[in-house]
Amino acid sequence: DQKKQYVLVPGGAGFIGNHCVIELITAGYTPIVVDNEHNSSAECLKRVEQSTECQIINYKIDCLDLENLRNIFKKYLIYTIINCAALKSVGTPKYLPLDEKHSCIGDAITNPYSKSKYICEHILKDTIVAHPVRILKLK
Fold first, then answer.
1. Reduced to 3 DSSP states, what percent helix, strand and coil does the chain have, rounded to the nearest 5?
2. Is pLDDT of 74 > 70?
3. Known catalytic residue: 113?
4. Is residue 135 in some structural domain?
5. What's the pTM value of the predicted model, to 2 decimals?
6. Which of 139, 116, 134 lies closest to 7 in space, CA to CA?
7. What are phi and psi of 65, to 5 degrees?
8. What is the CATH number of the domain that holds 79?
9. Contact at 8 Å (CB) between 38 and 63?
10. How far is CA 52 from CA 4, 22, 35, 60, 94, in A?
11. For residue range 93-102, what is the model confidence (pLDDT) as tens digits?
12. What percent of the chain has pLDDT above 70?
């Protein structure tokens, strides 16, 4: 359907993702959920369908499954992507609670995770310069 604005939501069956799906439906968009259900359940999407009275397009696939992702992009004209997919981190933080004076807070790159976040943010900045797209990052 050319009139619909499809929004791909990787991780849309998770806690944050299903709230995004509700807001997208409320705003008139058609969300397409892609979720491997590793940290989530299709049950929450059923509750979203009941509360919004809208059938959700849901694919139980992993975001790394490029062949199936390509098929979704061939089938639908994707307007934008809101990525809510993530794996839960392992382990317990050393310092709880953290406050604004703690040495772990700030822009310091102190481990591989913070380095990967830093690099991804610069990739997004370069993408914005090269292409007329809008990007929102949540921290």
1. 35, 10, 50
2. yes
3. yes
4. no
5. 0.69
6. 134
7. -80, 80
8. 3.40.50.720
9. no
10. 17, 7, 20, 21, 41
11. 666 665 666 5
12. 81
